[in-house]
Predict the 3D structure of the following.
Amino acid sequence: MKGSKNKNLVIVESPTKSKTLKKFLGKEFEVEATLGHIKDLPKSKLGVEIENDFQPDYQVIKGKQKVISRLKTEAKKVATVYLAPDPDREGEAIAWHVAEELKGVKTRIRRAYFNEITKSAVLKGIEGAGEIDQRMVQAQQARRVLDRLVGYQVSPILWKTLHYGLSAGRVQSVALRVVCEREAEILDFKSVEYWSIKALLETDKREKFSSMLAKIDGQDFAISNQEQAQKTVKDIEGQKFSVAEIRQEEKRRFPYPPYTTSTLQQDASRRLYFPPSKTMLLAQQLYEGVELGQGEQVGLITYMRTDSVRIANEALGQVRKFIALNLGENYLPEKPNFYKSKKLAQEAHEAIRPTYVENAPEKVKKYLTRDQFKMYELIWTRFVACQIMPAVFDTVSVDLKAGKYLFRSNSSKLKFDGFLKVYEEIKEENGNGQEEFKLPELKAGQGLKLLELLPEQHFTKPPARYSEASLIKEMEANGIGRPSTYATIISTLKQRKYVESVQRRLTPTELGTTVNRILVQNFPEIFNVGFTAEMEEELDKIEEGELKWTEVLSDFYEPFSSILQKVSEKSKEIKKSQQEETEEKCEKCGSPMLIKWGRHGRFLSCSNYPTCKNAKPLNHKEEKQMLNGAKCERCGSDLVIKTGRFGRFLACSNYPECKNTKPLTLGIPCPKPGCTGEVTEKRTKRGKTFYGCSRYPECKFSSWDKPVAEKCPQCGAAVLVEKQSKTKGDYLKCLSCDYESVAKPQPAA
């Protein structure tokens, strides 16, 4: 079928977005998708002509030649081609590459931007289409070339000193440094003992309440040991308690701004336990369009890569009308709530919000997957809440006098729920050491009866390891990366096995710690927070037209190449510094054994290599000790613990002569009724630990939580599982009933 020059072609990067746009644009438009980037730097070489103003050698990505041919064929049939990839630097680069490939086609080419995939926004984007923003293209190109220069020239140093295949990304390595430095803080932390004193009191009406010691002689105090605590308690016991002062006030808690990319990733991690990569995938699906029945395809949210909290006037009008009709006029502020974006935010974008506030979560739930619904509900409620009145609390603070000692109690009562009616807050730990509860009615000067004094020992705690949410917050605060890169940075660190998630906290692996040490010791000027943040600002200035992209790269590369040459010259020295001498002797030649790095981690190797090629696992001795002399039932040799693709397992030490293996169990019977198997530790293909039955596939029992041999006091089940949450801490839970208990502390290793 021949095309018509009265028609137009819209080119997007996503087939899903393509499907949605076809519903809006009518017969005058054809829609095609690039399926992502069509061109990139080559994988097999640097791909940057350093001596020629850093010109990139873009090449068609393998498999995309057919896409380009199809786009050229379709472009010849139409009057105008509208390039409409995502409205950011990445999308601008895709549009530019497509335009470069269509240069030989005599068709008008325009760039269209869709902040949301709704009919009105799409038609407006087509009507206002203009030229490709070359400054955005250059900013993206500068980032791509910069990352290539660092990654492709520093990574080989890691290959030479540790093992092949390691990665030294420009921004990911700084994020790794942040995680490693927090781990160092934790290891170096010295805990300090301190004591608090709580008083249990009673009024003349026999109403009981408690109060915490806040001041001694009008000063902040520190009780550092049990002896001081007991002495203080004894002194307080001789004092008379009375109400010194009562302060009552009304406090307001204001709503939060609508989501940006960063705050959405943080909240989804805290509330839904979604990793940033999953959050962005779900948000992309909601942005590109969901079918809501009867052929209606619509994008449910605005563009999800943004650092702006701006809200369009039209959306403000819609949400204020919605609040007045559905919640009541008392929930609607006199004027819209406005929020200030962070420095250097891209104000051309909006905050992440629902495209139509009338599409309440429950209304569209049946058209969404479970996770899509959770994500949409989070975005919708945060947006609606940001335009509601503040929550109001009546607070009471009471100071109690006992001689030179001042005790303090606080009480807080919700008076008006305001935005909390829609958006439920996550309870944070109370950092001031004071408790909030309902106080009895008290009067100044009123005497009180002391029932009991409760001294309690505490120890200062080290800073917490980063969660994915708090690492994103830290990266954003320090200008490490951009909103669109946070998810990729964390995913890469995990995939490279530089960090692992333990109880939802990011811990550097031995490999990650070693990589970080090599990079920081040898490239301190490159892999640091300040330099990375400065580079982000310069990339923004390229987009704003204040700097030339080639000058930014030239200023970076001159000192970088000098450092690179010096480090490359001492790569053998660096490699040797990562080896450790041991007291163990090689059983083949008697030479000392060294600890070296290989593809599968550290191992023992003969120092007489390559003359003697003896090598063995580093932990071979510890494995035998852990098993307390357990023997192979086939040949009688010692059993050892080995780690394979799917986790740890038992194997005969006489391998390869004896190839006997079996699962490593926890010594706990499988909790499934009638099963005679034991619980074993396993690992998914992606490296996540879980627990299953040794009789799989006959028994399909599995649990993400570690089972412990504790009997449930409520239903008698033989096994409980270890759980952890921010609000409850460590606790045990029964798989058969709702029983929960405080977990027993683990013995020190």
